[in-house]
């Protein structure tokens, strides 16, 4: 028997149920991708359903030095679960048997494969919410969100995934089971390993259970749309709203190209002669937000909004949000490939970032639209292309590199919420410096001496550059 | 059987369409087979990727076949897709390629089934469509071809729930007293053979609501099952026969009571899009086709009695996801005096019937059906009636009720039967 046959046989001993181990080629190809770029074939896919199974798999992986890649439901936009060096994909999507809500402690304890939206829905029944709301929350697993430290529109007011984690159960790369944090809000015992694991993109440990903090459900919401003939004015309005002491639950922005695409796809009656549109949702006590939404309207008008539409009913609010929902299908109508970036800048630099993006669009002659969570500086410049057109993709790759440079120069970051994965690894040093990356590498080496847990992520390989084609 | 990416294979597969999928995964929770079979391979995103891999010669047709055959074709994924991927087109292209590659043995069995459907005389002499499900003809064919060894067990489960057959010859014209619309009625093959009385009630309801109804004898099978199996040439031939038959008359609408056939009829435009002689005629035909609930919910019905029952509704996938006929059946249902409507949780999930899926993939289909019956049990009020809009769903839900031992508590009816009862119309 060769080494692969040996470890596959040992794997069958660890997982008693043969329906949870896949080695057929059709299956291997089905776990070779995520929502980013590139396909890489693993040698086996396993669906673990117990901490002990994961621990034994990691011990086996150490013995045979097999790379292991944790995977939720493969919605990653940065390549997090891609099996770039072959080996074993651990599919956690079927391990979803624990979803416990503790209303008195305002806390949830969940298995790794539970869907993010299901946690929020279960919390709602107790008058609570789980605030982080990545747009994939109906599909993405909580452990995937934890590994990537996912954000979402509510990030402005409520923060992101890391702000809601009290404790974790983690299997280390060497197969030990540890617990970080606990069931209390305050906990300063030792290093804060919880924060280290969250956002480590599955490179330091495998999350097998999480204790999450919940928040009381706001009683009511209010929605408003404002249109601006000038991008700088829109950016100014956002700043002025926040300085007026109002923190919206969501503050989304769409640029002219997005509005035009939506109107061409499914007309919403939006004017296409404006430069930007912002959508604001407030939540809280009904009387408080009743006053605040009027104030937001005033601020928008004073800052030069050409039109302000305030939703009077829930249906009207849904209608306003529909424009934002239609952006995704609208922008891929002519070309299929969507490169969704999440470079993030300080809020005050949003108008500058828009200007830089405009220049980049012109310089590389690319289709670039901008929308996103403007309130927290987390814009989503989306480039629309066709990945079969190699020449176009080279231009896109250069443009993306320049978007990252612009964000870092403006005091921002490569990634607000999608993670580094394979895609952004080549740019790490630009933001963190050589010493910064080296300190991170040392942490990785001490946790995973054989470099078997999710190798090929975060840290660039020698000579690695951005590649947005599949081959 | 390793294929190279020849121009031919890339063309036969809807290869370009696979690039529209950005692999976001939003389709996963909507896919019944992903939910029950619990792996990416049996999901829309997985299948689209495998079609692409097969077109590029990275996997063999044999490796592609399992996941494609286990797809229900319910197309719930298309509705939730944020990128507008044409899954139906990709699926059917794969079925077509696989159909051509299939061994003679397996093909014989399929040709028996589809040959019967497309040949009205054969259908009648064989004792009509029921024979498809009964032991005589099909079992013999299955044994002869050696294609389906476990078929008898599957057939036994369906036998119990099959309706009594009673068919009469169609008159050709059913006039309304004060006609609002002139409609052509599409009878369908399985529907006409197994649920003849539902067609009769449909026609009487249309008449009562103010439609002149014609049942033209030149019509034939819609071609849906053939198309879903990859026998596209047969489907196209049938489509052309139907188009030529109906365009001779000046109908305002062409009406059917069969969610699945209706979906095929409205897609004739797409089916014949590459045929310049037929493209426009096919689209004109498709545009005239509507489900009966569209007209009955718009027109005035002579309700005469109350139906004091708790009723739930299991939508037909093809009616929801392909015809996009969603609100009309509900409006019609809720207009029936006396009923208490209770929504079925996860109602848009397929019941697992899916044409002949429940015969060909019996175990997989029953797992999906069990999931569906859990949802029936979880409804806010226990329904006394489950309403369907398609004969396949009708039989499958009946089987589900039977499997749960609820036959004395829950009745399964076609929406037309319920409305007819409230109007005092007999079959």
UniProtKB/TrEMBL annotation, chain A:
It comes from Compostibacillus humi. Its cofactor is FAD. GO terms for molecular function: FAD binding; oxidoreductase activity. The keyword Flavoprotein applies. It comes from the Bacteria. The keyword Transferase does not apply. Coiled coil: none annotated. Residues 38-217 form the FAD-binding PCMH-type domain. PANTHER family: GLYCOLATE OXIDASE SUBUNIT GLCD. Belongs to the FAD-binding oxidoreductase/transferase type 4 family. This is FAD-binding oxidoreductase. Keywords: FAD, Flavoprotein, Oxidoreductase. Gene3D superfamilies: 3.30.465.10, 3.30.70.2740, Vanillyl-alcohol Oxidase, Chain A, domain 4 (1.10.45.10).
UniProtKB/TrEMBL annotation, chain B:
Its cofactor is [4Fe-4S] cluster. It is an enzyme of class 1 (oxidoreductase). Keywords: 4Fe-4S, Electron transport, Iron, Iron-sulfur, Metal-binding, Repeat, Transport. GO terms for molecular function: 4 iron, 4 sulfur cluster binding; glycolate dehydrogenase activity; metal ion binding. Its EC number is 1.1.99.14. It comes from the Bacteria. PROSITE patterns: 4FE4S_FER_1, 4FE4S_FER_2. The keyword Plastid does not apply. Component of a complex that catalyzes the oxidation of glycolate to glyoxylate. This is Glycolate oxidase iron-sulfur subunit.
């Amino acid at each position: 028997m060769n080494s692969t046959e040996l470890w596959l046989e040992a794997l069958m001993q660890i997982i008693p149920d043969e329906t949870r181990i896949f080695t057929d080629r059709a299956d291997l190809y089905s776990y070779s991708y995520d929502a980013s770029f590139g396909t890489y074939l693993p040698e086996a896919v396993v669906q673990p359903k117990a901490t002990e199974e994961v621990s034994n798999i990691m011990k086996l992986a150490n013995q045979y030095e097999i790379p292991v890649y944790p995977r939720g439901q493969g919605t990653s936009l940065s390549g997090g679960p891609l099996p770039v060096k072959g080996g074993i994909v651990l599919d956690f999507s079927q391990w979803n048997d624990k979803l416990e809500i503790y209303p008195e402690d305002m806390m949830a304890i969940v298995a790794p494969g539970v869907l993010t939206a299901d946690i929020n829905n279960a919390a709602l029944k107790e008058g609570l919410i789980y605030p982080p709301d990545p747009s994939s929350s109906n599909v993405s697993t909580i452990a995937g969100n934890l590994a990537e430290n996912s954000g979402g529109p509510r990030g402005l007011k409520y923060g992101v995934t890391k702000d809601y984690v009290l404790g974790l159960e983690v299997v280390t790369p060497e197969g030990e089971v540890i617990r970080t944090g606990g069931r209390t809000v305050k906990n300063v015992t030792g290093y804060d390993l919880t924060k280290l694991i969250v956002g480590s993109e599955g490179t330091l440990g495998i999350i097998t259970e999480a204790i999450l903090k919940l928040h009381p459900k706001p009683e009511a919401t209010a929605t408003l749309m404002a249109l601006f003939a000038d991008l700088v004015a829109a950016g100014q309005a956002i700043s002025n709203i926040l300085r007026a002491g109002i923190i919206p639950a969501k503050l989304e922005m769409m640029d002219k190209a997005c509005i035009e695409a939506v109107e061409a796809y499914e007309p919403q009656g939006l004017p296409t002669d404006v430069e930007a549109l912002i959508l604001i949702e407030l939540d809280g006590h009904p009387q408080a937000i009743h006053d605040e939404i009027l104030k937001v309207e005033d601020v928008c008008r004073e800052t030069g909004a050409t039109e302000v539409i305030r939703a009077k009913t829930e249906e009207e609010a849904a209608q306003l949000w529909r424009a934002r929902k239609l952006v995704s299908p609208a922008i891929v109508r002519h070309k299929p490939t969507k490169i969704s970036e999440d470079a993030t800048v300080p809020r005050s630099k949003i108008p500058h970032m828009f200007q830089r993006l405009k220049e980049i669009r012109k310089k590389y002659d690319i289709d670039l639209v901008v929308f996103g969570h403007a309130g927290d500086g987390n814009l989503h410049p989306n480039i629309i292309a066709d990945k079969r057109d190699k020449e176009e993709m080279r231009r896109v790759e250069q443009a993306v590199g320049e978007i990252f440079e612009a964000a870092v120069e403006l005091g921002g970051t490569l990634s607000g919420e999608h993670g580094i994965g394979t895609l952004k690894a080549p740019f790490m040093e630009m933001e963190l410096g050589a010493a910064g990356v080296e300190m991170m590498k040392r942490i990785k080496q001490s946790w995973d001496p054989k470099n078997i847990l999710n190798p090929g992520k975060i840290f660039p390989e020698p000579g690695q550059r951005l590649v947005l084609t599949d081959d | 059987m390793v294929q190279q990416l020849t121009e031919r294979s890339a063309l036969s597969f809807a290869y370009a369409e696979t690039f529209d999928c950005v692999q976001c995964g939003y389709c996963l929770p909507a896919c019944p087979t992903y939910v029950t079979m619990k792996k990416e391979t049996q999901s829309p995103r997985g299948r689209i990727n495998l079609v692409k891999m097969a077109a590029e010669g990275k996997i063999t047709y044999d490796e592609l076949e399992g996941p494609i055959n286990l797809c229900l074709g319910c197309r719930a994924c298309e509705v939730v897709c944020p990128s507008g991927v044409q899954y139906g087109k990709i699926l059917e292209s794969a079925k077509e390629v696989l159909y051509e590659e299939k061994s003679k043995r397996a093909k014989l069995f399929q040709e028996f089934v589809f040959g019967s459907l497309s040949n009205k005389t054969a259908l009648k002499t064989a004792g009509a469509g029921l024979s498809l499900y009964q032991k005589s003809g099909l079992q013999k064919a299955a044994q002869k071809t050696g294609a389906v060894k476990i078929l008898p067990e599957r057939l036994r489960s369906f036998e119990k729930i099959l309706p009594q057959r009673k068919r009469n010859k169609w008159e050709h014209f059913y006039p309304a007293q004060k006609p609002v619309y002139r409609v052509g009625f599409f009878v369908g093959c399985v529907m006409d053979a197994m649920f003849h009385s539902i067609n009769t009630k449909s026609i009487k309801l249309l008449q009562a609501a103010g439609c002149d109804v014609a049942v033209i004898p030149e019509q034939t099978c819609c071609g849906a099952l053939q198309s879903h199996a990859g026998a596209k040439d047969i489907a196209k031939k049938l489509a052309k026969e139907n188009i030529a038959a109906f365009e001779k008359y000046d109908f305002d609408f062409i009406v059917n009571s069969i969610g699945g056939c209706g979906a095929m009829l409205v897609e004739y435009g797409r089916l014949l899009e590459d045929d310049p002689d037929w493209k426009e005629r096919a689209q004109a035909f498709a545009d005239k086709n509507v489900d009966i609930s569209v007209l009955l919910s718009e027109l005035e019905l002579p309700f005469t009695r109350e139906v004091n029952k708790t009723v739930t509704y299991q939508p037909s996938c093809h009616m929801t996801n392909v015809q996009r006929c969603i609100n009309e059946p509900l409006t019609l249902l809720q207009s029936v005096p006396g009923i208490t409507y209770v929504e079925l949780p996860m109602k848009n999930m397929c019941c697992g019937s899916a044409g002949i899926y429940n015969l060909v993939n019996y175990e997989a289909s029953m797992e999906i059906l069990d999931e569906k019956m859990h949802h029936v049990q979880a409804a806010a009020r226990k329904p006394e009636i489950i309403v369907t809009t398609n004969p396949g769903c009708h039989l499958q839900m009946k089987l589900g009720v039977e499997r749960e031992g609820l036959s004395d508590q829950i009745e399964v009816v076609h929406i037309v039967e319920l409305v007819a009862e409230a109007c005092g119309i007999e079959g």
